[in-house]
Design goal:
15 helices, 6-stranded mixed beta sheet, alpha/beta, 18 strands, Rossmann fold, 502 residues
Length: 502
């Protein structure tokens, strides 16, 4: 049904994909995995005809639907052009779906959007809710192949669980990229592993857990083969040395051939060792922040209405002290991002006030990469930062932004690479307060662990929104703001159950 023939592509002088040959048959469920920046999104864009390869061809018969990793950016512009449309009007009239309103309402309920119906105004939805509407659109196009790039990044846990079940029972083919291991273990029948060292794709039967076992066994076998090959090369070399020390010309010729053979065997060992090279990991060390007073933030009775009479935030009050770690917990649409944007001056509250303490220097990480200029290069995006004595190129290197990549325009980077650049910009400024809106989005599990360790060592104050229970649990949270309860208090382990759920 889908035949990928000899696909190759390079960006910014960096080889991304090299001679990729793959096939997708009817009803296959494929998980595409690999580290951030390996080229997963690029491969999906090429399959979806959103990007042209340097070499190779895609042959496909049927209908294809594609949900971009950048949907949260694309949807903002698209939705703005559909003012005052209801969800139903948008899906049926604008997108041409053959779907009844009752079915839309059923899907909205499945997506944990209680209180929203096909008659709800599209522009009044939160960012996460708009993405759910786009996901509904993609699912109801009934295509022969669904291509989903990180579909769960902005979904809460109930929505993710429902999507897992839907994809398992989808009667046609699916190709999905996700860092959600639960999704990759349920219903996936084949794994495409994009090897960022070789720039090719290795195919493994089974789900993600099966893939990890096969990779582990393969590495174990390679290690054994490598040791055996090194022993063989050493034996031949030692034999050649003995022969070369003897007097006859016949033995010296024999020794010369042995030396040549030993070099060949060493080359084989080197080839095996290259297969064991692992991907590089981020090495984040957040610089020591500027000093400030004890009182960090005071929030008094903040409320926000986008539409008169429809409050997003009702009456929020809380205080944050120096070095505290505060998490905001709540489902999509309750105003978490809205609150953060108010506190960093990106939005104006309807009522109430807030005040940052003396000497506070606030750094903001936006899940929409608001601080990045997509038409500038990586280096151009970091000009003007207060780096002090930090070596810029070395600092970017810790975030795996290396070589010619620093001359690439932001719009050519993967989601993981954009996330790493946004984090590098944030940490380089030595802020003593970090306001973080879903900082783990698009980061693979290794990168999430590195970020977690860096934040645990950070000497400043953290205010964070996250749907990752384990990330929140290990961050040593001091206080919690529950939404939409608008209840603020000390952290309790029981609140972890509500991360990503309510």
């Amino acid at each position: 049904m889908l035949n990928i023939q000899s696909i190759s592509i390079s960006k910014g002088g960096k080889e991304i994909l090299k001679d990729i040959n793959l096939f997708v048959g009817p009803n296959e469920k494929i998980g595409l995995v690999g580290v951030n920046g390996a080229g997963k999104s690029t491969l999906l864009k090429i399959i979806a005809k959103q990007e042209e390869p340097d070499l190779g061809d895609i042959r496909f018969s049927g209908k294809l639907s594609y949900l971009s990793q950048e949907i949260h950016k694309e949807i903002v512009n698209d939705i703005l052009s559909h003012k005052n449309l209801t969800i139903g009007e948008y899906l049926i009239l604008e997108r041409g779906l053959d779907i009844e309103e009752w079915n839309i309402n059923k899907m909205l309920n499945n997506m944990n959007m209680s209180g929203k119906t096909s008659d709800s105004i599209l522009t009044e939805l939160s960012g996460g809710q708009k993405i759910k509407v786009e996901l509904i659109r993609v699912l109801f196009e009934n295509s022969n192949i669904l291509i989903l790039d990180e579909p769960t990044n902005f979904l809460d846990i109930p929505s993710t669980q429902w999507l897992m079940g839907y994809l398992v029972n989808y009667p046609r083919s699916v190709i999905v990229v996700s860092h959600d291991i639960r999704l990759m273990n349920k219903g996936i029948s084949k794994i495409w592993y994009l090897n960022d060292i070789k720039h090719n794709v290795e195919v493994y039967r089974g789900n993600y857990e099966d893939f990890l076992k096969q990779i582990s066994l393969k590495d174990e076998l390679l290690h054994k083969t490598l040791k055996a090959q090194e022993r063989k090369a050493k034996r031949i070399y030692e034999s050649a040395k003995i022969l070369s020390g003897r007097g006859s010309s016949k033995e010296k010729k024999k020794a010369a051939r042995k030396f040549e053979q030993a070099e060949i065997e060493k080359g084989k060992a080197l080839s095996i060792s290259k297969e064991l090279i692992k991907s590089k990991k981020m090495k984040i060390e957040i610089p020591v922040p500027h000093n400030c007073g004890r009182n960090i933030l005071t929030v008094e009775h903040i409320s926000k209405e986008y539409v008169k009479g429809v409050p997003v935030l009702k009456d929020i009050s809380f205080e944050v002290e120096k070095k505290e770690r505060v998490v905001i917990i709540g489902k999509n649409g309750v105003g978490k991002t809205t609150l953060l944007k108010i506190l960093v001056g990106k939005l104006k509250q309807s009522k109430g006030k807030y005040k940052w303490g003396k000497g506070t220097d606030v750094g903001y990480y936006s899940q929409e990469y608001e601080g990045l200029d997509y038409n500038q290069t990586v280096l151009e995006n970091i000009y003007g930062l207060n780096w002090g004595d930090i070596d810029r190129r070395a600092f970017l290197g810790r975030f795996l932004l290396i070589g010619d990549m620093v001359n690439q325009k932001i719009k050519t980077l993967s989601g993981g690479e954009k996330t790493r650049l946004a984090l590098a910009k944030l940490f380089a400024n030595k802020h003593n307060v970090l306001v973080l809106d879903e900082p783990t989005t698009y980061l693979d599990s290794d990168s999430q662990s590195v970020l977690l360790s860096a934040l645990r060592e950070y000497k400043g104050t953290i205010l964070i929104v996250s749907h990752q229970p384990e990330f929140v649990r290990k961050l040593d949270i001091d206080k919690v703001l529950l939404m939409p309860d608008e209840k603020f208090g000390y952290y309790k382990e029981e609140y972890i159950e509500r991360v990503g759920i309510i």
